[in-house]
Amino acid sequence: MRETILVVDDNAMMRTFLGTFLSRTYDVYLAQDGEDALHWLSQNEPPSAIIADIDMPNMNGYTFLNIMMGNMGYAKIPVLMISPDNSSERRIKCYEMGAQDVMSKPFNPIELEHKLKRFTQVSML
Predict the structure, then answer these.
(1) 91 lies in which domain range?
(2) Contacts from 60-66 at CB under 8 Å and sequence distance 24+?
(3) Which of 28, 35, 59, 76 has the lowest CB atom count within 10 Å?
(4) 97 vs 14: CA distance, rounded Å
(5) Is the dihedral of CA 86, 39, 49, 29 positive or negative?
(6) Structure confidence by residue, pLDDT tens digits, 19-50
(7) Structure confidence at residue 122 (pLDDT)
(8) CB 11, CB 52: distance < 8 Å
């Protein structure tokens, strides 16, 4: 059975790119913001990992991550945050909130794939 990745990004082109690229290896589900992602999570089995943008309307990545880490059912899901702003302050905030890793946009998709592989192997243990 393939691992599942939930991609949360308000940018339709980024969602489509990540969905297409990652679907070679994973079952990929797409959400347009944190609210959409939480709805998906409430209706499905937890994914192996989540990729979430920080800057989204309705519910941004910080709020989404905060809710994730505060829910015992979701807190162990590895979350990789992505953002065009790669400032140290933003990365540290994500780590302090419980994110497994942070990548800046644009990113190398092969690097992303390696990070996800590491996350999903850890979650299977």
Answers:
(1) 4-124
(2) 60/34, 61/8, 61/34, 61/94, 62/93, 62/94, 62/97, 63/34, 64/8, 64/33, 64/34, 64/37, 64/38, 65/94, 65/97, 65/98, 65/99, 66/97
(3) 76
(4) 24
(5) negative
(6) 999 999 999 999 999 999 999 999 999 999 99
(7) 52
(8) no
Q: How many CA atoms lie within 13 A of 61 on its CB side?
A: 27
Q: What is the pLDDT of residues 61-70, one digit of tens each?
A: 999 999 999 9
Residue 125, pLDDT > 60, answer no
Number of domains in the chain: 1
CATH code where residue 86 lies:
3.40.50.2300
